[in-house]
Amino acid sequence: MKSKEGRLPTDCPVEFSQIITGFSEEAKVHKQSSQGKHVDQYQTKSPKSRSIRQRSSSFVNGKCKSKETPLSENYGVDEMNSKLDGRNIGIRNLPHQRELLNAKNGIHFTVMVAGQSGLGKTTFINSLFATSLINDNIKENRPIVRYKNIIEGDGTHLRFGVIDTPGFGNDMDNAFTWRTMVNYIDEEIRSYIFQEEQPDRTKMIDDRVHCCLYFLKPSNKGIDALDVLTMKELARRVNLIPIIAKADLLTKHELSIFKMEIREIIRVQNISVCCFFDNNILDATKDIFQKFPFSIIASKEYVLNKKGEKVKGREYKWGTVEIENEKHCDFKILQKILLDWHLIDFVESTEDYYEKCRSEMLRTRLLKARDCLTTNTVEITDEQRKFLQEEMNFEDIEENKLKNYKCYEIINKVIMDKVATEWDPEFITRQLEAKKRFNDISNQEILKIKEWKKSLFMKQENFNQEIEELNHNLENLQLECQDLEYRLLMDKSSNHHSTDSATLVNVHIKR
Ligand SMILES: Nc1nc2c(ncn2[C@@H]2O[C@H](COP(=O)(O)OP(=O)(O)OP(=O)(O)O)[C@@H](O)[C@H]2O)c(=O)[nH]1
User: Is residue 336 domain-shared with residue 464, that is, in the same domain?
Assistant: First the structure.
């Protein structure tokens, strides 16, 4: 085995090769059989490799199709199988061909580690891959950090990616912290959909997340609301595996009570965790379900166990815990699930989810193209408008057949990225909050204006009253004036009259 790319030291994969023994042994089988010698897939020397092979081909889309029965028996077409040059041909050989194809193409597997800061995500990943993939001394100050590596062996390769979410939940306001992870998962799916539309698909980058390990605080006080909300959102998009971190901080009794509590919260909150462990599958995995949620102890230190062996673990005054001891924690079983038993299931189920997203996305692009005719949110040319009006039938989009591609061309990645931002719950909530704040402020201002108007009206009324009083006074004064004038006239006229009569008297006397 050799390693390229990433930070994995070249000597480390020796341990890693032990972890993925099944993977490399399968690769050996592929090599031998491709050289012309038939190797019965159910008769390989390693019983472990045999069980892996049986399980891998048993699971399709997360459901059990057939357990150990060869495909040909299922279909009753044994007669269709014949031998040519010592090699099986026909339907019996199809699963083998499929495995050859997988080995040739290699497997992409990306796991995200989420959960609140300081729960041992980095330590766990380094323990899981038995290497220092993530350098915990130089932690990057970004919410999402991606680590990539390739393990090659016997003609096949496993490209694995790890997405770390350092510092999750450290913000003052964590209401939308989960969006960073969810946006990342959505963006990778969206990017892959658009990459598939490119003419050259050989250089496609597949960064889709296949599984998310969610680290829960070891406590006997339930789960934080932030964890419940984040798990709910993640579980809608990815295979979610909740795990109890730092299980060495709980006693056996506390751990079993906490496990029951988590199971109950997950049930009540309707969080759809990874479905490979449900009860319609093999007994071995049924047993795994009893262990769910897995309790993990991680460590980068080596300690001496009771037998004096050097093992990865943690040392306490009361004793030593070994991370790979199944009696101490579920580390080993989780490692087998991730890198061995269910590796193919994770990839297959992600493909299923991807297909749903892809068809949903294409449908959305058609609807968005239809909206171009009624709204002007997307700028289109006159020619495009004419095409949408005359050539497209938006009532029955299936009828348009290949004409739909013109709509996909109009509603491109740039537009869909904008749509994704507009549909972002954080954006919508912030927008609603801003609208509410605006309404509150404008209501307050309207109230102020109303009061101001009211006081103006009152003032105006007072002024009017004053004016009325003044007018009234004026009128009275005018009346008084008139009266006085009249009296004056009267006085004058009476004086005049008396003067006239006095003059008359004088005239008479003179005569
Ligand atoms: N007791 C105990 N301590 C652990 C365990 N796993 C990790 N630690 C310790 O917890 C501390 C934090 O571990 P990290 O791996 O850096 O935690 P993290 O989740 O990656 O932290 P962030 O990157 O800040 O999100 C380190 O001192 C580890 O040694 C465990 O299983 N048990």
Answer: no
The domain boundary residue, chosen from 363, 379, 395:
379
Residue 28 lies in a domain: no
Residues 236 and 131 in one domain: yes
Q: How many domains does the chain have?
A: 2
Nearest alpha carbon, ligand 1 atom 8: 120
Task: Please check whether residues 369 and 478 belong to one and the same domain.
Answer: no
What single string gives the DSSP state of each residue in 333-347? HHHHIIIIITHHHHH
What letters, b where the CB count within 10 A reaches 16 and e where it falls short, cover 272-304? ebbebbeeebbeebeebeeebbbbbbbbeeebe
- CA nearest neighbour of 356 among 506, 208, 142: 208
Which residue range forms the structural domain that includes residue 362? 97-379
CA 385 to each of CA 135, 396, 408, 418: distance values in angstroms, whole numbers, following the listed order: 54, 18, 14, 21
Mutation to probe ligand 1, out of 112, 116, 117, 123 (largest number of atoms < 8 A from CB): 123
Phi (first) and psi of residue 173, to 5 degrees: -110, 110
**Looking at ligand 1, which residue's alpha carbon is closest to its atom 7?**
120
User: Do residues 334 and 463 both lie within one domain?
Assistant: no
Q: Ligand 1 within 6 A of 304 CB? A: no
Q: Are 313 and 123 in contact (CB under 8 A)?
A: no
CA–CA gap between residue 51 and residue 49 (Å, rounded)? 6
- Please check whether residues 375 and 429 belong to one and the same domain: no
Which pLDDT tens digit goes with each residue over 418-475?
888 877 777 778 888 899 999 999 999 999 999 999 999 999 999 999 999 999 999 9
ipTM: 0.96
Q: Is the CB of 177 under 6 A from ligand 1?
A: no
